[in-house]
Write a structure and sequence with these properties.
482 residues; Aldehyde Dehydrogenase, Chain A, domain 1; Aldehyde Dehydrogenase, Chain A, domain 2; 6-stranded mixed β-sheet; 37% helix
């Protein structure tokens, strides 16, 4: 079986041990063995990045553009192959996985362009005969810690701007799904970027992640993952003076008003709640439905859910693949039981499927769950489940719907289904979320626009698009006497 090593200072370096990467659609299918590094590997990677930074930080913008564009082109040319790998290791359906790979390629090509669009300001001073220049410079060695649910897109949207703006990178991908990140690292390695500029260290978060966060030569940490881990990283970074960017949890509301187009509301809710197996930080897990449309909506959504085919992520016709791991499956099922114990009614789904239809192969399959008659204070409506589990809250009117939507510690994405311009406009302004969707699923953000939330969902500058420069650069003001 192939062993995939860490990439440190331009060389593929064995870890202290290896760990198997297993297909959640078929537990007998081991994709490969992947290196498990330790703190000494982090030290070596950071040392390499530190040594490479002086030259890379002032390298020509054309060379940077060409390297990132080459990376993007190869990703796009291999999107079917890489999408198949992604579906195999994470459980996202093959069409969704190919779409994610394409997004990763587009991200690299976008930031290739940003290399040529670096801009500053030239201003007159209030003092005669003096000029002022405001420019942006790279911040140094950046540690990137990425999650398992978007195993190539999230690494791409962190790596690409970091490199585009002249930083050096050490990335720790999710230990659960290292294959896509390793494939991306291999492409970057062959792009012509100098040794040490980009480094990959795989392994356990509490080992590799902690070593990155604590390392004195790492200038900044960008993290996507759980709230608890994110808060710990923030505390450590503040103590050491590191720049920090966090994308954490969500408990995203989808409001459905009485005047909504029922078919449209049902479809966007099904897409928001259950596709990608509900394993998206932007997934909607709280359906907040006004009184008059509630019965028809619940019935229609159950009918739509009955058509969802759960199965092998790479099989044609599959709508939803497996949950990513045994631990995640157990968590999803436990939340269904917690909700029932607190008084919610399980309308449909919510059980494990022993194997996917047709093959008999064992995987982490779960029938999507819909809980009705829930209340805002139930745990199912307060805590992030991160699976194909949705709860419905019945409210009287728009005003109550908005209040319930905002009654959460999170604030990443929020949606509304309505034909009213008045309510749509009001919701866009007053929903306490970083991203708002009107008559669209809560999940799905373009690669060239900012991504991020409010409250407990995000901390620090936005990711993606031109807003990425706020994190990956530092501002310098220079005065010149004419």
């Amino acid at each position: 079986m192939t062993t995939h090593n860490n990439l440190i200072n331009g060389s593929w370096t064995p870890g202290k041990t290896t760990s198997p990467n297993t297909n959640p659609s078929d537990l007998s299918d081991v994709i490969g063995q992947y290196a498990q590094g330790d703190a000494s590997d982090v030290d070596a990677a950071v040392a390499a990045a530190t040594a490479a930074f002086p030259a890379w930080s002032v390298s020509g913008i054309q060379a940077r553009h060409d390297a990132l564009d080459k990376i993007g082109n190869e990703i796009l040319a291999r999107k079917d192959e890489l999408g198949d790998l992604l579906a195999r290791e994470e459980g996202k359906t093959r069409p969704e996985a190919i779409g994610e790979v394409a997004r990763a390629g587009q991200i690299f090509k976008f930031f290739a362009g940003e290399c040529l669009r670096l801009a500053g300001e030239s201003l007159p001073s209030v003092r005669p005969g003096i000029g002022v220049e405001i420019t942006r410079e790279p911040i140094g060695v950046v540690g990137l810690i990425t999650p398992w649910n978007f195993p190539i897109a999230i690494p791409a949207w962190k790596i690409a701007p970091a490199l585009a703006f002249g930083n050096c990178v050490v990335i720790k991908p999710a230990d659960l799904v290292p294959g896509s990140a390793w494939a991306l690292a291999d492409i970057i390695h062959r792009s012509g970027i100098p040794a040490g500029v980009f480094n990959l260290v795989m392994g356990r978060g509490r080992i590799i992640g902690d070593a990155l966060v604590q390392h004195p030569d790492v200038a900044a940490i960008s993290f996507t993952g759980s709230v608890g881990v994110g808060r710990g990283i923030a505390e450590a970074c503040v103590k050491s003076g590191k720049k920090v960017q966090l994308e954490m949890g969500g408990k995203n509301p989808q409001v459905v008003l009485d005047d909504a187009d029922l078919a449209q509301a049902v479809e966007l809710s099904a897409q928001s709640c259950f596709y990608s197996t509900g394993q998206r930080c932007t997934a909607s897990s709280r359906l907040i439905v006004t009184d008059k449309i509630y019965p028809a909506f619940v019935q229609a959504l159950q009918e739509r859910m009955a058509k969802i085919k759960v199965g092998d992520a790479r099989a044609a016709g599959t709508d939803i693949g497996p949950v990513v791991s045994q631990a995640q499956l157990e968590q999803d099922l436990s939340y269904v039981e917690i909700a029932k114990a607190e008084g919610a009614v399980l309308a449909t789904g919510g059980s494990r499927i022993a194997c996917h239809t047709g093959s008999g192969k064992e995987g982490f399959f779960m029938q999507p769950a819909l809980l009705v008659d829930s209340t805002p204070q139930m745990r199912i409506n307060r805590e992030e489940v991160f699976g194909p589990v949705a709860s419905v809250i019945r409210v009287q009117d728009y005003e109550e719907a908005l209040a319930v939507a905002n009654d959460t510690a999170f604030g990443l994405s929020a949606g509304i289904a309505t034909t009213s311009l008045k309510y749509a406009s009001h919701f866009k302004r007053h929903a306490q979320a970083g991203m708002v969707m009107v008559n669209l699923p809560t999940a799905g953000v373009d690669y060239h626009v900012p991504f991020g939330g409010r409250k407990g969902s995000s901390y620090g500058p936005r990711e993606q698009g031109r807003y990425a420069q706020e994190f990956y650069t530092t501002v310098k003001t220079a005065y010149t006497l004419a």
